Amino acid sequence: MFYKKLNLQHHGYFINRISHDFKLKKNESLSKYNLTDSQMKVMRYLWHENCLSQTEIQKRMNIKPSSLTRLIDQLERKQFITRKISSKDSRVKLISLTEKGKILKKDSWDAIIMLEEKLIKNFTDEEKELSLSFLNRMLNNILTEGDDYNKSK
């Protein structure tokens, strides 16, 4: 049988549910800054490096080029970023923060930190470290080359 009955004790179910609900809460918190969670991801890369090629952002976010173009269009309309053609290579589009985009960093980031703290409230320091360790291991497991599930059958 290729599937089992839905068991709400599966790790994947909880990871997916937490991710979904956390994203909804982030979008709610970020709406007062005229940002979405996806737009915030673009901004976060630019806050760290100030100017990146569109291709570099796309690779880091691991999304389709068309999806990133839509996000950049939205951020450009809001005047949070600018898009310019590279003087070295006309095929390269460089994305930079505007002053308006730079100003957003502290308040919008504080909103995310508050949600992060809510996510792990009532956890001891040891539980916080353990949960990060477990999540990192799960991520490494899922990113590992090969399909161990099919090999065991």
The level-1 CATH class: Mainly Alpha
Morphology call? globular
Number of extended strands: 3
| Main sheet characteristics | 3 strands, antiparallel
SSE order: HHEHHEEHHH
Tally of separate helices: 7
Q: Residue-averaged pLDDT, rounded?
A: 90
Structure description:
The chain is mainly alpha-helical and 153 residues long. The chain has a single domain, classed as Winged helix-like DNA-binding domain superfamily/Winged helix DNA-binding domain (Arc Repressor Mutant, subunit A). It has helices spanning 11-30, 37-49, 54-61, 65-77, 99-119, 125-143, 148-151, and strands at residues 51-53, 81-85, 93-97. Strands 1-3-2 form a three-stranded antiparallel sheet. Strand 2 (81-85) and strand 3 (93-97) form a beta hairpin.
Tell me the layout of helices and strands.
Elements: H1 11-30, H2 37-49, E1 51-53, H3 54-61, H4 65-77, E2 81-85, E3 93-97, H5 99-119, H6 125-143, H7 148-151
Antiparallel strand pairs: 1-3, 2-3
Helix pairs in contact: 1-5, 2-5
